[in-house]
């Protein structure tokens, strides 16, 4: 996998994580492509699970 592609997917994951931590709904995902969207949602799900543990 190219570094550029990996960086883009890592960025999508971290943006999804930030959205989840702040409580934004998953419907606010800005990505349309399946691969990038799945990374964003993965970060969002991780943040939501961590949020429920600390709440």
From TrEMBL:
<dbReference type="Pfam" id="PF04957">
    <property type="entry name" value="RMF"/>
</dbReference>
<comment type="function">
    <text>During stationary phase, converts 70S ribosomes to an inactive dimeric form (100S ribosomes).</text>
</comment>
<dbReference type="InterPro" id="IPR023200">
    <property type="entry name" value="RMF_sf"/>
</dbReference>
<keyword id="KW-0963">Cytoplasm</keyword>
<protein>
    <recommendedName>
        <fullName>Ribosome modulation factor</fullName>
    </recommendedName>
</protein>
<feature type="region of interest" description="Disordered">
    <location>
        <begin position="1"/>
        <end position="33"/>
    </location>
</feature>
<comment type="similarity">
    <text>Belongs to the ribosome modulation factor family.</text>
</comment>
<dbReference type="InterPro" id="IPR007040">
    <property type="entry name" value="Ribosome_modulation_factor"/>
</dbReference>
<keyword id="KW-0810">Translation regulation</keyword>
């Amino acid at each position: 996998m190219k570094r550029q592609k990996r960086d883009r997917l890592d960025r999508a994951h971290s943006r999804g994580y930030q959205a989840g931590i702040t409580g934004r709904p998953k419907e606010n995902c800005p990505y349309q492509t399946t691969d990038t969207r799945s990374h964003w949602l993965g970060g969002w799900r991780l943040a939501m699970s961590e949020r429920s543990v600390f709440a």
